[in-house]
Design goal:
- The complex is a heterotrimer.
- Chain A contains six helices and one strand, in the order αβααααα.
- By secondary structure, chain A is mostly helical.
- By secondary structure, chain B is an alpha+beta fold.
- Chain B folds into two domains: 98 residues, no CATH class; 148 residues, Immunoglobulin-like, CATH 2.60.40.
- Chain B has a five-stranded mixed sheet, with no helix packed on it. In chain B, strands 4-10-9-6-7 form a five-stranded mixed sheet.
- The longest helix of chain C is centred in the first third of the chain and has 37 residues.
- The chains are: A mainly alpha, B alpha+beta, C mainly alpha.
- Chains B and C meet through helix 1, helix 2, helix 3, strand 7 and strand 9 of B and helix 3, strand 2, helix 8, helix 9 and helix 10 of C.
Chain lengths: 220, 277, 586
């Protein structure tokens, strides 16, 4: 559970820091009025959706941290045989990075209101993410062909399970991205900056998770 | 009003029940009197707190119940009181935790002279294995389990051949001799539970768990399974017989070794006299 | 009084809190069925939870019939008994308590208490309920599949849960795991709402330290849930793989019913770690909202500020944080590394300190109060008794070496029922009686409510207090029939029969409660907007029951903390949170 403890400690540190900004030691019964004089005592100016996504990502991070914990604990048993790492995984990693970068560019373009560029980068981000998914499936097929069946070893089972779960989250991201694109197509001059920012956050998160998972695979 | 009375009744009734009830732990038959001692300390401390809190509530309800003209005291906090209560609680908790940890240290430190006994659980019966003349238990593997070899002992292991296998009988232990109880399961989780011994531990397939104890009272004791293991869980029973040395040796005399049971060459006689007195 | 007056006391401009986008319903369907109003969703959650909870209640009757009178009711066989205990436990913990406290009370109270119009993501909030309903339906479906629901115990320990020899290993366990996975997904949708609404939709002046403890409790519990449910998710997914796809995450090589299975190398203890990493925070996911709600009930009905508000808030946060480092106290005799015992016994007993502080502050709030013995207050008092009792027996089980003889006996059953069964449910009843006039605009029948209270409180105590002594005696749990033993006297069976009879009476008394709730909908006395003369915002709504959007045209502005009861010099014994301070000459 080491990895999880580390992650949950980080969450705890953040929580303490956040709470410490909210005057938790004040004596509320002595203070009357609207409290507008205290900076930070009210709600933050960050868009609600962004806060919501952050909370969701924290929950998802807990999910992956716990999977990694389970992986590390199961790894210590005698029957563990490391899974092969197809070269394709490196390519997929690169593709996912490109996807994140494309979304980043789309966000920059949205700041400049450059319709053509937004469109191009959105398509690029979507298609690279799709390419990543296809790449992962091909990597699975390569592994199966090499004899790494799901049930034959826990290392294989973990590989398919965790990459599958990560892939599902990418699919979810694609749905969200599709929704942003659909909204763009409907309105004359839609403001998609928030939508793009959220997609960007999510993409970067999934990239980070993938890098951690891939690193874990390479190390073990 | 009625609630104040009810609260007093709950507090007093609980104490009366505690002392008057015929339901109390079974007389101990192992060295783990310290566990009982820690439990008693915990009973006293928690009991005192429970009675104090409930009676205090009853008093408050009676004394400060609403009557016309009553006004509640406006007192948002009282730091001194709160700190004082915190420190007192911490001390009470420490008074329970400290002896608990000391006894736990004893519980997990197996004495050097403990003999090993293996207890194997499966759905839904108990089997036992004692080391043979060599004083060592042979190795085992689940893959060797078959009708001749119900515990899956390694056929080629010389240490295993003289092991005494008891499949379907009672376990006998010698009084006053510390035993390290090694626990194994062939299928699902079980838990070797003899209430009189106080100690218990789950049996986990794929690994060997343990605890230790010294039987201190002769007699027959029920073995129950304390970890849900399927529909036969309550029927998974056995007996431990704690006996004096002579009776124990006489029983040991009649037991069969793994070699004998499985028709393999090796020691056929179970009893042995320890190498040095 | 050295009051500090912040800002000017007069002429506050309208609140500038961003309105959440309100979806205004156009038809009956969107108003009552696919509603995005948190209050309607709260009722949907609550009614569904209570409905499935009734199933669990009936299962407990069947269980008690078997335990009290073994062999008499021949239609209950050992397999069914295991199925009853499993479904009873899982339903009560997850589908009733978690759903009711967070999905029910969370949805209803958070927006009202923090002065928001609704949850921040109403659409996601609506989805959350429907996904929850799906989870419940999948769970219920397991009663109708071949082999019936799983009988693995609510802890679902492998390998037993997926092997022959355990009822429901064919389909029941699969549906159970799938249902839990669905529940977690649905819960996450709701949980995001509860957390972000508290973070981002508090009305003007509602600082964190002015929030009622109910909001603090639900908020902290939801944060715990968002972080702890993933552990259950991981455990369920991995077990589902083991069961359906033949992987060996948790299953070692074993011989099941004389047959060597293809599994190998897995670790049953790994499952236990994951399960309890969720399972212990889960206790507090249920307890913290109860703590919060009961604090508000006591303050309101004792007409006194909650004593030591700051300590109460810190204690909630501290308990929440500590709840993540005590999980292995459920595993002292699991065969894990025995050295863990030292660490987990220490953390577990440390958590007793903030919990005790909460208890002290509740009873100190009664001290020199002006206690109105209303039905919600009675339930709050009963909560304290049962919670203190159950909490103190937790000190037995948390102290590793004392746990050894007691684990897996009826002592454990009695402990957790007292502390996370009876105690939170008493709070739920108190809370329902307390907020019923706000939710429906009517009062319940007082005589029926009192009857319900007395039977429930004294009955529940009479069920679970003596049960501890059966455990002390050594009676193991999860036995449909103890049979013959050398150490259990005949009198223990009499006690068991007594417990069963009381349990049936208490169970039937709950029907009185249900009747009261439904009957009063139409026939109850009309209630005004603030019958308890409470300070918190939900009682200050322009309409009762509050309309969609809660606040009419303008959001309330908060000027003070939530506990201004019997303030010296004030002209009535409470000052609502949204009442501006009167400027006082210096």
């Amino acid at each position: 559970m080491g990895v999880s403890i580390l992650f949950f400690s980080a969450v705890a540190v953040f929580a303490v820091w956040w709470l410490s900004k909210h005057r938790l030691a004040s004596k509320p019964w002595l203070e009357q009025g609207t409290a507008s004089e205290f900076p930070g005592a009210g709600v933050s100016q960050t868009p609600v959706a962004k806060v919501g996504l952050t909370v969701l990502l924290a929950s998802l991070a807990a999910l992956f941290a716990l999977f990694i914990s389970a992986y590390v604990m199961r790894m210590q048993f005698a029957d563990w045989r490391p899974v092969a790492k197809p070269t394709l995984l490196w390519v997929n990693t690169g593709v996912l990075m490109l996807s994140s970068a494309a979304l980043q560019r789309a966000r920059v373009a949205a700041e400049h209101d450059d319709e053509r560029e937004i469109r191009a980068y959105l398509v690029a981000a979507g298609s690279t993410a799709l390419a990543f998914l296809i790449g992962q499936i091909v990597a699975w097929q390569q592994l199966v062909a090499l004899g790494y069946a799901l049930a034959s070893n826990p290392a294989n089972a973990f590989f398919y399970l965790i990459t599958g779960l990560h892939g599902l989250h990418v699919v979810g991201g694609l749905v969200a991205l599709g929704w942003v694109m659909w909204r763009r197509s409907r309105a004359e001059r839609p403001d998609v900056r928030l939508g793009l920012a959220l997609c960007g956050m999510y993409w970067d998160f999934l990239l980070l998770i993938w890098l951690v998972l891939f690193g874990l695979l390479l190390l073990t | 009003m009625a609630i104040a009375l009810a609260l007093v009744l709950v507090a007093i009734g609980s104490v009366v029940f505690h002392f008057a009830s015929p339901w109390w732990w079974t007389p101990i038959a192992s060295n783990w009197g310290y566990i009982d001692g820690t439990l008693i300390i915990t009973f006293w401390i928690t009991g005192a707190v429970f009675v104090a809190v409930v009676l205090f509530m009853a008093y408050c309800v009676l004394r400060f119940r609403h009557r016309t003209g009553n006004q509640a005291l406006y007192e948002p906090e009282n730091k001194r009181l709160e700190w004082w209560l915190t420190v007192a609680t911490a001390l009470g908790v420490a008074a329970m935790l400290a002896p608990g940890l000391v006894v736990w240290q004893q519980f997990i430190t197996v004495p050097e002279d403990a003999t090993e006994v293996e207890i194997v659980g499966r759905q839904w019966s108990w089997s036992f294995r004692l080391p043979g003349k060599d004083g060592k238990l042979g190795t085992s593997d689940i893959r060797y389990v078959d009708a001749d070899n119900p515990l899956g002992l390694t056929p080629d292991d010389p240490n295993a051949r003289d092991d005494i296998v008891i499949d379907g009988g009672d376990l006998h232990l010698q009084i006053g001799k510390p035993v390290k109880v090694l626990l194994r399961s062939l299928d699902v989780l079980h838990d070797f539970y003899v209430p009189e011994f106080r100690g218990k531990m789950d049996m986990v397939p794929g690994s060997v768990t343990y605890f230790w104890m010294t039987p201190t009272r002769t007699g027959n004791f029920d073995i129950l399974c304390a970890e849900l293991c399927g529909v036969g869980h309550p029927q998974m029973r056995g007996q431990v017989v704690v006996a004096e040395e002579a009776a124990y040796q006489a029983w040991l005399e009649k037991q069969k070794t793994f070699a004998e049971l499985s028709g393999r060459p090796g020691p056929q006689k179970a009893s042995y006299t320890p190498a040095s007195p | 009084m050295g009051d500090v007056l912040i800002g000017r006391g007069d002429a506050i401009p309208p609140a500038e809190v961003v309105d959440v986008e309100l979806y205004h319903p156009h038809s009956w369907i969107t108003k009552y069925v696919f509603s995005q109003d948190a209050k309607v969703i709260a009722l949907q959650y609550s009614l569904t939870a209570l409905a499935i909870g009734l199933v669990a209640l009936v299962l407990s009757w069947l269980m008690r019939l078997q335990l009290g009178f073994p062999g008499v009711f021949s239609f209950i066989d050992p397999s069914q008994y295991l199925q009853y205990i499993t479904m009873h436990g899982m339903i009560m913990v997850i589908y009733l308590l978690t759903a009711l406290f967070l999905g029910g009370f969370g949805n209803y109270l958070i927006p009202l208490m923090v002065g928001a119009r609704d949850m921040v993501f109403p659409y996601v909030n609506m989805l959350s309920y429907w996904v929850y309903l799906l989870a419940v339906l999948v769970l219920v479906a397991s009663f109708f599949v071949p082999g019936g629901p799983t009988g693995a115990g609510w802890t679902l320990y492998p390998p037993q849960a997926i092997l022959p020899g355990t009822p429901g290993h064919e389909w029941g366990i699969i549906l159970m795991l799938v249902s839990l996975i669905i529940f977690i997904i649905g819960f996450t949708m709701g949980g995001l709402n509860y957390v972000v609404t508290v973070l981002q939709a508090r009305t003007r002046g509602m600082t964190l330290m002015r929030m009622p403890l109910t909001v603090w409790g639900i908020f902290t519990a939801t944060v715990l849930a968002l972080l702890a449910f993933p552990a259950l998710f991981v455990a369920c997914v991995m077990m589902l793989f083991d069961r359906v796809l033949g992987t060996s995450f948790f299953i070692p090589a074993l011989v099941s019913m004389g047959e060597q299975l293809k599994y190998g190398g897995g670790s049953p203890i790994l499952f236990q770690h994951l399960f309890w990493f969720f399972g212990h925070p889960e206790v507090y996911i249920v307890a913290l909202p109860a703590f919060g709600i009961v604090s508000d009930l006591i303050a309101t009905h004792a007409r006194r500020n909650i004593f030591g508000y700051r300590m109460m808030v810190w204690a909630i946060v501290a308990i929440g944080a500590l709840s993540f480092v005590v999980w292995a106290h459920h595993m002292y005799v699991s065969g894990m590394n025995p050295w863990f015992g030292f660490f987990f016994a220490t953390t577990t007993l440390v958590i007793a300190v903030p919990t005790a502080i909460k208890v002290y502050n509740w009873v100190l709030t009664l001290w020199r109060g002006d206690i109105h013995l209303t039905v919600p207050m009675l339930f709050a008092l009963a909560f304290i008794v049962t919670f203190v009792n159950g909490g103190l027996t937790g000190l037995f089980l948390g102290n590793v070496v004392v746990d050894v003889p007691l684990s897996d006996t009826m002592f454990v059953v009695a402990h957790f029922h007292m502390v996370m069964g009876v105690a939170p449910i008493l709070v739920i009843f108190g809370a329902i009686y307390h907020w019923y006039p706000k939710i429906t605009g009517r009062m319940w029948n007082e005589a029926l409510a009192k009857f319900h209270f007395w039977i429930t409180f004294l009955g529940a105590y009479a069920i679970f207090f003596p049960m501890h002594y059966l455990g002390l005696l050594g009676m193991p749990r999860r036995y449909h029939d103890i049979g013959q033993t050398s150490f259990i006297p005949e009198s223990a069976h009499t006690l068991n029969a007594f417990i069963s009879i009381v349990a049936l009476i208490v169970g039937v008394a709950q029907m009185v409660f249900l009747f009261n709730m439904f009957w009063s909908l139409r026939h109850g006395r009309k209630a005004d907007g603030n019958p308890w003369r409470a300070t918190t915002l939900e009682w200050q709504t322009p309409e009762t029951p509050p309309g969609h959007g809660n606040w009419g045209k303008e959001l309330p502005v908060v000027y003070r903390w939530a506990y201004d009861y019997n303030v010296p010099g004030a002209d009535q014994d409470f000052i609502p949170q949204n009442q501006p301070p009167t400027p006082r000459p210096a």
